[in-house]
Amino acid sequence: MVKGLVAQVERWIESDPEEGTRQELRALLDAGDARLADRFAGPLVFGTAGLRGIIGAGETRMNVAVVRRATAGLGAYLLEHVSDARARGVVIGYDGRRKSLTFAEQTAAVLLAAGLRVYLSKGVCPTPVVAFGVLKYEAAAGVMVTASHNPPEYNGFKVYAENGAQIISPVDQHIAKGIEESGPARSIGVANLAEAVDEGRLRYFGEDLDDAYCEAVGDLVPRGTGDRGLSIVYTALHGVGDPLVRRTLAEAGFQRVRSVAEQAKPDGSFPTVAFPNPEEPGAMDLVTALAVREDAALVLANDPDADRLSACVRTQVGAYQQLSGNQVGVLLGHYLMERDRAVGDDSRGQALVITTIVSSPWLGCIAQDLDVAYDETLTGFKWVANCAMTREREHGQRFLFGYEEALGYTIGTVARDKDGIGAALVLSVLAAQLHAQGLTLLDELERIARRHGLFASKQRSLRFEGAEGALQMEAVMQRLRDETPSALAGFAIEAVTDCQAGTRRTNGQSESIALPKSNVIILGLAEGHRVIARPSGTEPKMKLYFDVREQLADGQSLADAQERADATIERLEGELLELLGLS
């Protein structure tokens, strides 16, 4: 084993405040385990959603030492840069994952020791409630301990700015600087939580914030429209969404709601699913089985921290079709734009919808047809939320809706982050209104496609584990930059956007783009098709996105158009994988 690595591990063990992780590292060190190199390949850095990593010992893992240092960096930033941060304090929530409570309490203890007030959840809570809480309490920041839909071995540390949105640059850089200057984890001060409660510096939140959140979410939908006798089944996927989803639906008049009992309570081991992400094969099996037994019209699922939403719809033959993130995004966005247009009150400012560059172009085409302002951002809801606030402030526009294809949606300004609970309620109301007319969400998608064009999309995720995997992903991205083809599947590549270089090349001419720098390459093809490649910011994956546009002629079958679009996607995918050496 490399001598320098041994010394690095010894220093970490000496500074680690947690007995269990010290013993874990000592055992690996004594055994000369080569896996130590990965544990110390570089510290976790703030990415798309703050910190996220595998639970365990070492600087690349999620543990008490890493959380203490990250919190010290956050505290230093707040005290130096955020007005009245001590009194305004920080909202802290946590989900049901392994070590979430420990990490949340450690976060609170470090912030309290730094002189900041803390609002700490007295039990597990959904991510959108924490985002809402930052605004409700006018806090200086928020922290949510969660790894969202990652595998069971992961946990994370998501940071919200005072505006209620996830942090963006340069805040992450300031926090990173604070982490570097924080010193060894064992030297960082921690407060006694019970004493802080007695002193009035620590307040636990629960039902009070839930009540305010549910009231705000309930105001997103009209009262009593549609058939609220619609049968709905739901799963929290062993996460934290069940109580508030069932509550908001009941308060809106939905009484025929059943949840999957085996998955209703938080369990960080996720015993009934291989991967707690509604997009993954098998994750929806229990809820669709319940839907068959109940003959439900609508199936809803949150991820474990309830910031994402998936939905299935009963088809004419009684099976259940899972909608893609883009399909749900288009359904919600179209519904909200149409509803807003029916109000006809231009004095409130132009309506605005936002999505990300890897989401389907479909929403943008609909917005253009309905004279609604539209924008695109980088992947990650922090960009959606901050773009919305910028356009509200600078252009007087009203943010109606934002989404990203990875099942993330937010309606209005209740929370400046993904909100799987609010989205579940609004989608249920739309389904109820259609049900009263003898229609389904699938019928509504066909109506939208015939009016605004059909878009078909596919995402392909390729896993690259560990430090070596990160290098492989970088090599694949560089190969696409160096060997960009002139065509794919017979469609000319008309534009190449490189978000890392900050350029778009069209017809041999290069121009700058306004998006922040990010490792994303976008190939714009003839006939409105598109291919995108990027490494994930939260998982060890490379993600490829394919979008194909088809126009439907009068009387033309939607199924035929979908089949043609799917075939085009398959050709594009095959040629791209071959080009990148991944087939």
Topology:
Elements: H1 3-15, H2 19-30, H3 36-39, E1 51-54, H4 64-81, H5 85-88, E2 90-94, H6 100-113, E3 118-121, H7 127-136, E4 141-145, E5 154-160, H8 171-180, H9 193-198, E6 202-205, H10 207-218, E7 232-235, H11 242-251, E8 257-259, H12 285-294, E9 298-302, E10 309-314, E11 320-322, H13 325-343, E12 351-356, H14 362-369, E13 373-377, H15 381-395, E14 398-404, E15 408-411, H16 420-435, H17 441-452, E16 454-463, H18 466-482, E17 487-488, E18 491-498, E19 503-506, E20 509-512, E21 521-525, E22 530-535, E23 541-550, H19 558-579
Parallel strand pairs: 2-3, 2-4, 3-6, 7-8, 7-9, 12-13, 12-14
Antiparallel strand pairs: 1-5, 4-5, 9-10, 10-11, 14-15, 16-23, 17-18, 18-19, 18-21, 19-20, 21-22, 22-23
